[in-house]
User: Fold these one by one.
Assistant:
Number 1:
Amino acid sequence: MKPIETVLVVGAGTMGHGFCQIFALNGIDVTLVDKNKELLDQARGWIQDNLEYMAELKELEGQPIRNILDRIQFKIDLNQYAKQTDFILEAVNEDLELKKQIFQQLDAAAPPNVILASNTSSFDINEIGEVTGHPERVIGTHWFHPPQITPCVEIIPSEATSPDTVERTILFMDRIGKVPTICKSAPGFVANRIQLAMAAEALSIVEEGLASPEEVDRIVKTSFGFRLGAYGPLEIIDQAGADTYRAVYNYLYNKLQREQFKSPRILDKLIEQGHYGLKTQKGFYEYKDGASDVIKRDRDRKFYARLRLFKEEEKSKK
Ligand SMILES: NC(=O)c1ccc[n+]([C@@H]2O[C@H](COP(=O)([O-])OP(=O)(O)OC[C@H]3O[C@@H](n4cnc5c(N)ncnc54)[C@H](O)[C@@H]3O)[C@@H](O)[C@H]2O)c1
């Protein structure tokens, strides 16, 4: 299996410059391609500013900024540089026709063992792979802004993506300190589907005049938003109890008559089987005897660490 030593990033915008920063920080040689020199100069300036701020925050671990920047080349000729790399990450505008055209171009220029990854936020990876002669090397890697910091990368194989492409991509993401997780190619993948459902409710609440934008943001950041860095939504259901969740869903559905509050069938099934979560030792996860105490201590340790950080941030605002 060929390890990834060099990367080509296509598109020097909001995401593209962040990709170059994280690759170069991890000792990887990167080429960044965009349409003109002005856009490339702008990206270089952003990367330099970010690195200078990292140094100020003592996040650079002694790496000289010059050495990191020297690992990045800024170029216009996509075809030439597509020939000389191991991994290509496409980050052009969210326009399906444009992405298809870029993938056809990359497919023609890059040798078949080069992985072609797209950072699309929404398009079906099958549709992108289909325009190439080698769909087995096409994969979705969906990063989150700012990509040089946020850990998650959703790994989205199409039906034609080879296991080798998936494995090499995951190993590469691990190597640069990301947290890759495989999910199916479906609209919104996983994170955006959840994030947009939450945003829709936040917007409705403001629209209905129930709370101001500031009040909504403050409530989210200090309630479930505070917990979400430590526990995902399904872990939280297990801790709260599936029965409690269903009771709240039923009440909201009766009162608001909105489809999104209809208790999901998966919750009913768990309850029918007696799997309420931590309190019955099985829910979405299984819990051994005594797990309740272990989880409580683990939870408290994580939450107190977050609370300290939260209080420091509040203090620094004053
Ligand atoms: N911005 C985000 O928060 C975010 C988060 C996750 C995923 N994404 C996805 O990442 C991709 C890029 O988003 P962005 O926010 O960085 O966009 P952006 O508009 O900031 O940057 C896009 C860049 O692509 C360049 N480009 C366009 N056509 C090109 C071509 N033919 N050759 C070379 N470069 C070309 C543009 O000049 C521009 O610099 C999109 O698919 C988007 O959906 C964005």
Number 2:
Amino acid sequence: MNDHIARWNSASKCFDLANVGIERRYGKYKRELFTKCQGKVLLVAAGTGLDFPYFPEGLEITAIDFSPKMVEKAREKMGGYSGKLEVVEADVMSLDFPGKSFDTVATSCTFCSVPDPVKGLKEIYRVLKPHGRLLMFEHVRAGAMPLGAMMDIMTPLFRKFGPEINRRTGENVRKAGFTITREYNVYLDMVKLFEAVRP
Ligand SMILES: C[S@@+](CC[C@H](N)C(=O)[O-])C[C@H]1O[C@@H](n2cnc3c(N)ncnc32)[C@H](O)[C@@H]1O
């Protein structure tokens, strides 16, 4: 098992408790975003399944995470979703799904921690159908000085515990081939909603 997976396995133990404040503050934004899901949905990096209640009823959702311990916890919450939901252990950087198989990919607080974000986003592009949508809730590097520079300095410290705080996720989404159709600042320019389409 690699270090990244081991770190998230360990984080799974107190993940729900540690995220109470985040869900309370940002849950409504995730719900607003995930309401836009249509058809066959891939939820990337389900974590412990805290995002399941934000999805509209009746969808067909495949949720993945590369941490077996996160998958275990997410499976405990599966029953609360009224629709088709399966949770699968998988790495977004190397997916087994055939190309063009999903209508929507949804994800939250993920591309701060995927080891090679562009590789992961290219895999998402591959498995999305043409005109399929990518819906993301993400924290990113601040554009303004000195905040952005401070985030660069602090990133090696944060990396020891989990996420990187200076990811340029918008740029990465474009590098993977997507067209961003909406970028909404939830908190300053550090917590954002992205909506993107595979042309
Ligand atoms: C900050 S947590 C977010 C979990 C969930 N989306 C939420 O907001 O509650 C990041 C998650 O990304 C998962 N992850 C990181 N890199 C991954 C990868 N390459 N493939 C699949 N899951 C990954 C971790 O295991 C962890 O569960």
